[in-house]
What does this fold into?
Amino acid sequence: MTDFFSGIAPVKYEGADSTNPLAFRHYNPDEVVMGKRMEDHLRFAIAYWHSFAWEGGDPFGGQTFVRPWHPQDQMATAKVKADAAFEMFDILGQPYFCWHDADIRPEGDSFGESLKNFEEIIDYFEEKMSTRKVKLLWGTANMFSHRRWMSGASTNPDPEVFAYSAATVKTCMDATKKLGGENYVLWGGREGYETLLNTDMGRELDHMGRFLNMVVDYKHKIGFEGQILVEPKPQEPSKHQYDFDAATCYGFLQKYGLENEVKLNLEQGHAILAGHSFEHEIATAAALGVLGSIDMNRNDYQSGWDTDQFPNNVPEVALAYYHILKDGGFTQGGTNFDAKLRRQSLDADDLIAAHVGGMDICARGLKAAAAMIEDGGLEDAIKDRYAGWDTPEAQAMLGSDLATIFDKVAGEGINPAPKSGRQEMLENYVNRFV
It folds into this structure.
């Protein structure tokens, strides 16, 4: 036990009129939405790295947070950090959490020492999870922070780094399976390049594809029943990331024969960095059959960087969940808060309040999305817009050829008149629900 969250009671649902800053106003885990409990729809997870490992630094300044588990270079403090984490899980009552290996154990002087630390803390987690409802949504490996990863992991020009990466992922997959994790994520980090002057792109892509095939093979070898997920991540930190967005990742998966084995973990902030909306990335992944899970956060739209702030925009979140619900909702995936406090938000209750607010925003978005689906207005508008394609004549044209279509257009004097897309009316429609 720690005293970091001393005096903070478990967060309860108090309804929309509550003025308690540490109460849920919209997230009621037992509320039924479209035939399913809200908790089971949203499947919230807390990110261990931002909530507990991040020390509050930025490119112009160092640590601002002072926690009982600092410095994070000893097993004793790693266990204090775990104690605090599970105390927060108890306070918030969310069903899942997520980790990178480097978040939860101190770095050793060798691979063997790091592995020993990692296995010890995984055993500590297993013990704590045995008496709680919280489960592991996914595990992953941090293969971007240490200097060994400066030129990538699976795409590194040094085969020893490739080997170290493979060994690291094996240990993290073993730990994820041991803790009952429902997914395993490959977070590219530095799988990209700074300049083509020193890069063999074709070789790097082939190595990345081979690496991911090894991961899938190992999943089947050990009987891991979770999803393997890849997280699209543009421009950060490499200028040219190979996993730029959902469409790019799908093309990569197809090239290396993995489109039926691997799905995507999509992040709102990464979508914005790629020049997309979050709903675009979700709809793209859903259309391609590779939507797996999401990281929920937001960017500062003035900074142009991945600031990993907690969500606070109900219309954005509603449209994201609209496409998730249209795709059938989460199965093994969920909503991971890949979000962190601002470096001036120093206190324990700031960390609780941030998650409370994010969970409320997601709850409001989910309910709005469900209401839109149940109303059917957007689907009716789309059906009406494409109604011409439902005729036998239009369907037959898709199986025809250019010359036959030319004869029809020329012979019948076809001269189509444009029809309104009614965008503003549909935007007004969405605003009725949010």
In short: The first strand starts at residue 32 and ends at 33. The radius of gyration is 24 Å.
